[in-house]
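Notes to self after the call with IL:
- keep both proteins in one doc
- input above output, always
- annotate only the second one for now

Protein 1:
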Amino acid sequence: MAIERGEIYFVDLNPVKGREQAGQRPVLVLSIDAINRLPLVVTVVVGTSGANITRDYPTNIRLQPAETGLDSETVFLGFQIRSLDSKRFPDRATGRVSRTTLKKVEAVVRYCLGL
């Protein structure tokens, strides 16, 4: 299975601790394809339903279905970055973002990391 940067998958994030996002969630692949092809981990930013986040913050990016290929509005949480084993991922991506949208996500993540 070839996981690619910019793809969106629904992944089970359990088990978790504390304030980590739990359960089946959309995740957007941030790690570069050269890393994604290795038997390492895949770095993602975790998403949640837009209905769960009533306000926009500089730490989040709200994306519409037309931008993601998902069925509903999704907010990706720039402060919820995780590295996951590729075995967590299903065989196919559920969605994908454009390079332009990926640049916006990168800006939010840079903000959260102080880069």
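Protein 2 (the one to annotate):
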Amino acid sequence: MDELNDFFTNYLPNKLTENPGLAKDINAIYLFDLDGYGKWSVDLTEGSGSVSEGAHASPGCTVTAKAEDFAKLLENPSSGMMMFTMGKLKVDNVGLALSLQKLLS
């Protein structure tokens, strides 16, 4: 799962650093619960945002998927809606989930 590790430890933190207004624009906390990989929290409520391993106590949106399915989503972010309708990607707040496109693309 090198692509997941790279996404959470390099790509996403760099994207937030390079686009400081992105966190303010989204202003939410996401929990990614990826079966076969672990849990990662993305807090976009303070500063330019932060990414950390582990669960957050009060996420606004929890994204649940198998690690291999989430890796496929990273390869093709436009497949998110299809994966959602197929049950391969689950979210508990659809409104906030729609903002994920800004993070993934």
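Annotation: Strands lie at 29-35, 38-43, 50-53, 61-66, 89-91. The mean pLDDT is 93.
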